[in-house]
Design a protein that fits this description.
Blueprint (H helix, E strand, L loop, with lengths): L2 H4 L16 E8 L4 E8 L8 E5 L5 E5 L3 E8 L2
Antiparallel strand pairs: 1-2, 1-5, 3-4
């Protein structure tokens, strides 16, 4: 990468959940009917890719394979 490449403006790929608040609870509905609830997810740490990466208030980092997810419920924490 040359100097010219470093000047290209990169899009903000942060989660749109940042607008909902600092912390959320998410319920993941997996293929096969399994559900898992994670509380205290820091919205500014959510990164989307083949694996969605999330960090919780207690320091736990989650990596969830997107191809196994049917739906995600989001509950805003006060």
């Amino acid at each position: 990468m040359g100097k010219r490449d470093s000047k290209i403006k990169k899009p903000n790929l942060q989660s749109s959940l940042i607008d909902k608040g600092k912390h959320v609870t998410q319920i993941f509905h997996f293929i096969g009917g399994v559900k898992r609830t994670f509380k205290g997810i820091k919205t500014e740490t959510i990164r989307q890719g083949q694996f969605t990466k999330l960090e919780c208030k207690n320091g736990v980092t989650l990596m969830i394979n997107d191809k196994n997810i049917l739906m995600i419920e989001v509950i805003v924490e006060k």
